[in-house]
Amino acid sequence: MSDDELAKARRELEKEYAQAREALAPIEQAYQTLMDATPEDDLSEMLGDLEDAVHKARTGGLLGSGANGHRRALDDYLKVKMARGGQ
Predict the structure, then answer these.
(1) Residue 23 C-alpha from the chain's centroid
(2) Could you tell me if 26 and 61 are in contact, meaning their C-beta atoms sit under 8 angstroms apart?
(3) What CA–CA distance (Å, rounded) separates 76 from 6?
(4) Could you tell me if 60 and 69 are in contact, meaning their C-beta atoms sit under 8 angstroms apart?
(5) Any alpha helices (H) in 23-65, and if so which ranges?
(6) Are residues 26 and 57 in contact, defined by beta-carbon separation less than 8 angstroms?
(7) Rounded to whole angstroms, how far apart are CA atoms 40 and 57?
(8) CA-atom Rg of the chain in angstroms
(9) Contact in structure between 59 and 2 (CB atoms under 8 Å)
């Protein structure tokens, strides 16, 4: 495997990582809303919003690939890296 292949795989890994990290912000917001809830708030709905945010972060929703895309990019990167002797 060439240096170019490793560099390309690394760029893809970093791109997917950045996208997956961005998708964590709605999770944090939904969690904070849940933690700020009062007895008069609908916890079930808030938990549903949190679950939706986690699902979207994992799968990427309609347009992205989410954490699953990062996993694939990581697998590809590690394969290229190991083919080069793990360097």
Answers:
(1) 6
(2) no
(3) 9
(4) yes
(5) 24-35, 43-59
(6) yes
(7) 29
(8) 18
(9) no
Residue 6, token pair as written in the block: 């490793």
The whole-angstrom separation of Cα 62 and Cα 70 is 16
Tracing tokens 């292949």 back to the chain, one arrives at 5
d(CA 43, CA 41): 6
Q: What is the pLDDT of residues 13-70, one digit of tens each?
A: 999 999 999 999 999 999 999 999 999 999 999 999 999 999 999 998 777 788 999 9
Instruction: List CB contacts of 7: < 8 A, sequence separation 6 or more.
Output: none
DSSP-derived 3-state class of residue 86:
coil
